[in-house]
């Protein structure tokens, strides 16, 4: 689906990923409203170009870490939408047997090391995973890890610590900041001293800033950074300017905090990654993809809602790594 050279070379494949994420998110919001998804979600609508563009630059064996707003990254790396929807609805057929939910979806078989509810935490996990992969080595090309995070993460100490060690040890990791202008309701201007890219360059990490609304622009920027990391040039940093079209969290649909004016939201939504990429396709080709995605999403929802919930009997299973035993003398 993605992570293959076919996507990189094919505007239609890139459009399909954007469309898949968009429709997945819209249906997931429906399921929050109907009570099938408990606790709400952080919709990725508007930011799809980043997941689609960056993941198109990756190989299947590459790794990603994601955020609280993680559905798009997980889908773009190739996760099965049906098992993803089952995870969100807490079903035993979900990617993580319904135990992770929206903010902890993971698929290790695809190199998806997990969405993550802790802002900034994925940076250290990605750096550690890329470092471990390079230590385990082999003769093949290095595995690259990408860490997606928001502008709110750039003031987290753990992320800056990850920058430091990744730079010192020339770890093949690409840090991708999705700057959507807000951390919950707090603007970047009110929260970030200095520039976002300056955080990276302070550690000697090359940094590039691009339009994050255009999937092809993101792909064109991400591909050389990924290959630089793979070639042993150490960590790279990509800032993508983007806009969150929907709520910070679906809770906002009811609470309606006033932190963005309607005019601001309308302006932000005026550049839609779906239309930017869709304009590169004929109407007929676009319709074929839209219809196919519609079937995939309808099947995903049917699969999820038709799946059993986890049994209380095995509620404590699959929560810890199997085989773990404390070291002798450690209780
Ligand atoms: C360490 C930590 N602090 C605070 C929170 C609460 N929190 C959840 S999302 C969020 C905002 C994150 O903003 P940003 O990183 O810009 O991502 P965005 O929501 O814009 O995608 C905050 C503060 C958290 N989850 N983790
Ligand atoms: Mg943000």
Automatic annotation (TrEMBL):
<dbReference type="InterPro" id="IPR029061">
    <property type="entry name" value="THDP-binding"/>
</dbReference>
<feature type="domain" description="Dehydrogenase E1 component">
    <location>
        <begin position="19"/>
        <end position="296"/>
    </location>
</feature>
<dbReference type="InterPro" id="IPR001017">
    <property type="entry name" value="DH_E1"/>
</dbReference>
<protein>
    <recommendedName>
        <fullName>Dehydrogenase E1 component domain-containing protein</fullName>
    </recommendedName>
</protein>
<dbReference type="InterPro" id="IPR050642">
    <property type="entry name" value="PDH_E1_Alpha_Subunit"/>
</dbReference>
<keyword id="KW-0786">Thiamine pyrophosphate</keyword>
<keyword id="KW-0560">Oxidoreductase</keyword>
<dbReference type="Pfam" id="PF00676">
    <property type="entry name" value="E1_dh"/>
</dbReference>
């Amino acid at each position: 689906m993605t992570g293959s050279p076919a996507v990189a070379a094919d505007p239609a494949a890139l459009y399909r990923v954007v469309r898949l994420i968009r429709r997945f998110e819209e249906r997931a919001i429906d399921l929050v409203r109907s009570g099938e998804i408990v606790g709400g979600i952080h919709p990725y609508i508007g930011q799809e170009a980043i997941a689609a563009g960056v993941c198109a630059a990756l190989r299947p064996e590459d790794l990603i870490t994601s955020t609280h707003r993680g559905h798009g990254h997980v889908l773009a790396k190739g996760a099965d939408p049906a098992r993803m929807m089952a995870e969100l609805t807490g079903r035993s057929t979900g990617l993580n047997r319904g135990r992770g939910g929206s903010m902890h979806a993971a698929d290790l078989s695809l190199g998806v090391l997990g969405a993550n509810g802790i802002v900034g935490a994925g940076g250290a996990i990605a750096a550690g995973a890329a470092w471990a992969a390079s230590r385990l080595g082999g003769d093949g090309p290095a595995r690259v890890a990408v860490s997606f995070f928001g502008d709110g993460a750039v003031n987290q100490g753990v992320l800056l610590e990850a920058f430091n060690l990744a730079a010192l040890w020339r770890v093949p990791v690409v840090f991708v900041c999705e700057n959507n202008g807000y951390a919950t309701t707090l603007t970047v201007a009110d929260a970030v001293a200095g520039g976002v890219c300056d955080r990276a360059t302070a550690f000697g990490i090359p940094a590039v800033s691009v339009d994050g609304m255009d999937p092809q622009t993101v792909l064109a920027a991400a591909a050389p950074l990924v290959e630089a990391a793979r070639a042993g040039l150490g960590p790279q940093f990509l800032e993508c300017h983007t806009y969150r079209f929907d709520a910070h969290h679906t809770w906002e649909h009811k609470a309606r905090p006033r932190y963005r004016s309607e005019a601001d939201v309308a302006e932000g939504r005026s550049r839609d990654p779906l239309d930017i990429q869709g304009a590169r396709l004929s109407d007929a080709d676009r319709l074929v993809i839209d219809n196919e995605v519609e079937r995939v999403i309808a099947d995903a929802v049917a699969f999820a809602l038709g799946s059993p919930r986890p049994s209380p009997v095995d509620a404590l299973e699959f929560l810890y790594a199997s085989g773990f035993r404390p070291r002798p003398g450690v209780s």
